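Lecture 7 notes: from sequence to structure.
We start with the chain below.
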Amino acid sequence: MFDKIKEQNILFLDIETVPQYPSYQDLDERWKKLWDKKSKNISTEDQISEQTYNKAGIYAEFGKIICISVGFIKKDGEQRQFRIKSFANDDEKKLLMEFNSLIIKSFNRDEHVLCAHNGKEFDFPYIARRILINGLKIPKIINMAGKKPWQIKHLDTLELWRFGDYKNWTSLDLLTAVFNIPTPKDDIDGSQVAEIYYKNNDLERITKYCEKDVIAVAQLFLKYKNENIISESNIQILT
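Predicted structure tokens for the same chain:
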């Protein structure tokens, strides 16, 4: 399978999401009732809706994207370069418009492929849903609606690791440790993103965390191919 895909045609990505509002109390009555219903499915017996609202960012109906980081491999002879570009903004629609522009311009041909960790269950559908909610058009490489499985140009490093064992869920952090790849979780982890965003107003820190995840996904993919990872000196953050 790996031999059929040119690594230069893969766009690695990761997203960071938060609840649409800082707290449950900021919701209007209609949305409080909707979250109350949702909360019943995810809460323990002693939790109330207000206590579970920190998980709202996981769901595209209740959350929003604050950062999308993408990366691609560029080969120069035998050397690999990895270029990273991030779209981070409090204005989700603006962020998505900029992301869409990159996809349509540079990564929307038949040979192109998207790759993320747990991307098929989270990143790709979340992006598609939020694009629709913001009244934008979904680029064809992201839009899975009505497509056969073999028509979908998505790779998922979690799915690849399962080898058909769908009971298994393995975190990116664990896999980077298994393959001796520098951890992307050396500063924060996903559970802290909403607090850092709403309480500390530190979108730059979240963006750096998102970029580290993208690097880790690309390095993990190379390890799956039994190839060397890209050296830190060959990783470039684009502005």
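Points to note: The chain has one domain: 2-20+62-238. The chain has a mean pLDDT of 91.
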